[in-house]
Automatic annotation (TrEMBL):
Residues 55-117 form the DUF302 domain. Pfam families: DUF302 (PF03625). PANTHER family: INNER MEMBRANE OR EXPORTED, SLR5037 PROTEIN. Residues 1-21 form the signal peptide. Keywords: Signal. This is DUF302 domain-containing protein. Gene3D superfamilies: TT1751-like domain.
Length: 149
């Protein structure tokens, strides 16, 4: 009986990891992490959204003598789009504003990664057909594509 429970737990965790991976969108770029983030920040600001923070995870790791490689996170949003979503379910505030991670993988390939907002908000009391959710998806797609060019 215990073996079945352990096997079930392992399969559940593995399945959750795969589900999370399926919810992530990765956009390949030939730019460096810094250049990709600069381009993304410019695209976000050019679109009229607000950049709330740019976090350099790699630099943070270096302050404790650890190598994380190049990795930066941009946190941004537009209150006209995010506010109605948080009005529908305040818990959406845990996931908003939007986030895009730029990182170099083990082979040195740079990626822009983000989670699909529809999937992120799926378990909340937010209607998938809410226009703002579609606007978030479209903005992430366009902004990361522009930054990756």
């Amino acid at each position: 009986m215990r073996k079945h429970f352990i096997l079930a737990a392992v399969l559940a965790v593995a399945g959750a990891g795969q589900a999370l991976a399926d919810d992530l969108i990765r956009v390949k770029t030939d730019k460096s992490v810094g250049a990709a983030m600069d381009a993304l920040q410019a695209a976000v600001e050019g679109a009229g959204a607000t950049v709330f923070a740019r976090i350099d995870h790699g630099a943070g790791a270096r302050t404790v003598d650890t190598d994380l490689g190049d990795m930066q996170l941009l946190i941004f949003g537009n209150p006209k789009i995010g506010t109605p979503v948080m009005q529908a379910d305040p818990i959406a505030g845990l996931f908003l504003p939007l986030r895009v991670l730029a990182y170099a993988d083990k082979d040195g390939q740079v990626w822009l990664a983000y989670e699909d907002p529809e999937e992120t908000l799926d378990d909340l009391d937010v209607d998938d057909d809410m226009p703002e959710v579609g606007m978030m998806r479209g903005a992430l797609e366009k902004l990361t594509a522009r930054a990756a060019e």
